[in-house]
Amino acid sequence: MNSNVHHRKPRLVFFQWDHQPNANAAGYLLLHMQQQAKCLATHFDVVIINRDCDYAEICDRYEPDLTLFESGYRSHGSRRIKITNTNTHVAVPKLGLHNADAWCDRRAGFLSDMEQWGIEAYFAIATMAPEYMPAVKENLFVWPNFIDPEVYRDYGQQKVVPVTLTGQVYGLYPWRQTVFPMIRDRYPCLVSPQHAYESKLASQFLSGEAYARALNASLVVPTCGTMGGEVVRKHFEIPGAKACLVTERTAAVEAAGFVDMENCVFVDGHNVVERLDYLFAHPDELQRITTAGYSLIHSRHTLHHRPQIYQWFTLNKGLQFGEKIIQSGPFGDLVKVKRVAKHESVHVVGEASDRALLKQGDLLLEQGKVVEAKHCYARCLDYVSYLPEAKFRLAICALQEGDADRSYDLLVDLVKVTMIEYGAVDPDPVEWAYFLLALICKGKLERARRLQDFYPSLSHDEFRRARLVIAQLGRSGGVVPGRYGRDRKSIHQLPARSDSEWLVWFANILEQCRQPDLANLLGHAPIGGSGTSEKTAAPYFKRDAGWRLRLYSGVDGLMVKLRLNSLRPNVPPLPEFRYLRNLVRAFVPESQRGALRRIRTALLGPPV
């Protein structure tokens, strides 16, 4: 046999979003996606599919050894592609890629995609992702950020810029909010403007080689990893372009191999001026740290040092019964272990500010201190204005304070993000369960009963309890729902309660929300039973008021009867979910929607 025969690389089909629209705004986002494909190409023959497609047809055409699905991205420019027939070619292993911040509000959409596509193993670019998605952390590995060494290198630029300040500075970046003004007021700085990703002005950002050369011409460049203590690309780009990294000390940064005054400089608001003064007064030491940082990046954090997806592919091929794959650390290798050994992947022990506030709020809520708990959850929104865990908990607080309308509005917003803004097939099961419970607290029991099966494949213990409440309050004589199917994964974690404890808790909430009849009925209902109590009578199911609601419900029912499920909107037939607008999108070409909107407004008035 000829030993010189070249073994072909395994073929990877990468279902990547269409990121091309970012070329006219934040062009560096497009560069990041191209660098991901370049990294994968070090081990795979990569085929990129970034258009709507049929999975079966793609597999027939390219015969992949592995398929990778990008999901959960949060961008106003990039377009999420539609992929059908993912239940075919079951012999081809599939992986999900959570290509987003760990705290992103598209995580529920990501988990929905994974369920829809039959994917049970995932990679994330964020080292903190396992802490933000604990329900899947056993099968969630990290494929961390990296640099392209052809771009981020030593260009031999003269060091003419003392400090370069680049990156966003708002609530998500508390370290930068403290440190950047102190630096800017004391040293000559090259300051990059702040523009939103989707802004046309973002096209003026330095990116690619021009950005790398600007870093290379700088002595020191500060950055941080957000309130989440993350490792972002800048942590690698700055020393990779041979500038001295000045940053916040976090567990994730230390896991990447950064050591204070050895290959980077750790500072905070108390010592930043003192330390920079020292560095500028000792140029030899500054150069030593810069050179060591450069060596760290080019020996451990380039696209040639990210084999984790290839390692999973190789290990999975030979995986035996009773074995599983774990990761030795967020930047570490994947290895195979026996399940009985109880070994787990090593994740960064979190220092995320929002997680700490959520835990503090949960403890206060457990003690009945609702106002103080609300304050903790609201402070989370100062970091990330769209954080779903904080909004969900605020909805729970609103229920406990008897404000069903406020709770309902918050839950509608959460469901809309996943279903309308992201476009998932179904919502987070816990958010959906509490949406139905908020409806009941508003006195809309019939509406909750009618909507409970709108997402028939959705299953979760909290959703089962919501259905249990509907069955017991409705007294329809039917069987109280049991658990069916395996739980859909949720981004939310709730206190552990037995069914009886939970029903007492919810009966108290009904009392707070001025639904004493329902609370009394639930309080006397036998757990798991469906018979009426002697003391209480079944409430009469009031028909939903308003012809608009009846119209929406009738149209939705007709869609089901006519077997037009593929064109049916993925949102409930309610005005707050813009049901008709989503229906129009399914039926009417974009060019004709303007005229239809005008007709709709004339008939129904402006949208709610």
Explained architecture:
This protein is α/β, with parallel strands linked by helices and 608 residues long. It has four domains: 11-144 and 306-341, Rossmann fold; 161-302, Rossmann fold; 386-524, Serine Threonine Protein Phosphatase 5, Tetratricopeptide repeat; 547-604, no CATH class. It has 23 helices and 15 strands. The strands form four sheets. It has a six-stranded parallel β-sheet with strand order 2-1-4-6-7-8, with helices on both faces. It has a five-stranded parallel β-sheet with strand order 10-9-11-12-13. It has a two-stranded parallel ribbon with strand order 3-5. α4 links the parallel β7 (122-124) and β8. α13 runs antiparallel to α14 (388-400), α14 (388-400) runs antiparallel to α15 (404-422) and α15 (404-422) packs antiparallel against α16 (429-441). The protein is globular, with a radius of gyration of 27 Å. The model is unreliable at 529-541 (pLDDT under 50). This is Spore protein YkvP/CgeB glycosyl transferase-like domain-containing protein. Residues 202-306 form the Spore protein YkvP/CgeB glycosyl transferase-like domain.
Topology:
Layout: E1 11-15, H1 27-40, E2 45-49, E3 53-54, H2 55-62, E4 66-71, E5 83-84, E6 94-98, H3 107-117, E7 122-124, H4 129-132, E8 140-142, E9 161-165, H5 174-184, E10 189-191, H6 208-216, E11 218-223, H7 233-240, E12 244-247, H8 251-255, E13 265-266, H9 272-281, H10 283-300, H11 308-317, E14 323-327, E15 334-338, H12 353-366, H13 370-383, H14 388-400, H15 404-422, H16 429-441, H17 445-451, H18 461-474, H19 499-512, H20 516-524, H21 547-561, H22 579-587, H23 593-604
